Amino acid sequence: MYGEVILALNTIFNYIILSFTNNIGTLQVSRKRLLISALIGACIVVFIGQSILPMVLAFVVMTISAFGFRFMKWFRSAVVCIVAALFAGGLLTALEPLFSYMPTVYFASTSSVIAVAGLVLLQNRWTVSKQQSLERGLVLETTMTFQGNSWQLSGFIDTGNSCIEPLTGRAVHFIAWHAMEARIDDALKNALLSWQASNPYKLTMFPKELQSKLTVIRFATVQEKTVYGIAFRYDQWEVHGADGFFIAPGFFVLTMEANHFPQQVDVILHVSTLCQ
């Protein structure tokens, strides 16, 4: 009976670790395969012994059985498994005095719940950190020139921004109003503030010399609302850095709805910026 309990506890713990690794690595391994691999690892430890060599052998066989024989894929998965095992093991060790007096069944159930809860929290934090790291890689420092004036703007390449000006097919970027407001000339500022989205094609309020550089476009917001906006053709847009380049000619739209901009940037750049 004791051996069966140890086998069940090892299998549960192994399955939790393998499931965490599968979710973190988006490996799409079936639950059945993970469970069989967890059982194989538990059997090796229980029937051969709990010394260092059987435990290492059990870990290698279990992870290869779960995630395959390709070395790099296995190696990355194994590293995540080790991190998860150390985290869950450390958590259970720290909390063990609180529930060690429980009967075996309740002890096993409580340990499993704690391990799962801890790894879910770790997975959420891991995912957030990974997303933030990817986002930081898409942040660029830029200089945009319009009407002879230049603005230093931090931009984020948003793969969800595929908005184009329909007549020319050129990209449309979205700039936070507060990033340009201070240096926009008064005539343009007053025209923008008096322009009405309910009558979008009435553009008489804009200076005549500027009307050839603007157009009205319709686009969908993050909230999936269809709205109209004024798109301006910029003169030049340079991206700084070791691999600096000039963004292809296009348009920008000023928006006051910039609270959702990631990384507190000034500009949501068109996805095509990735390919330049």
From TrEMBL:
<keyword id="KW-0472">Membrane</keyword>
<keyword id="KW-0812">Transmembrane</keyword>
<dbReference type="InterPro" id="IPR005081">
    <property type="entry name" value="SpoIIGA"/>
</dbReference>
<dbReference type="Pfam" id="PF03419">
    <property type="entry name" value="Peptidase_U4"/>
</dbReference>
<protein>
    <submittedName>
        <fullName>Sigma-E processing peptidase SpoIIGA</fullName>
    </submittedName>
</protein>
<feature type="transmembrane region" description="Helical">
    <location>
        <begin position="12"/>
        <end position="29"/>
    </location>
</feature>
<feature type="transmembrane region" description="Helical">
    <location>
        <begin position="35"/>
        <end position="62"/>
    </location>
</feature>
<keyword id="KW-1133">Transmembrane helix</keyword>
<feature type="transmembrane region" description="Helical">
    <location>
        <begin position="74"/>
        <end position="95"/>
    </location>
</feature>
<feature type="transmembrane region" description="Helical">
    <location>
        <begin position="101"/>
        <end position="122"/>
    </location>
</feature>
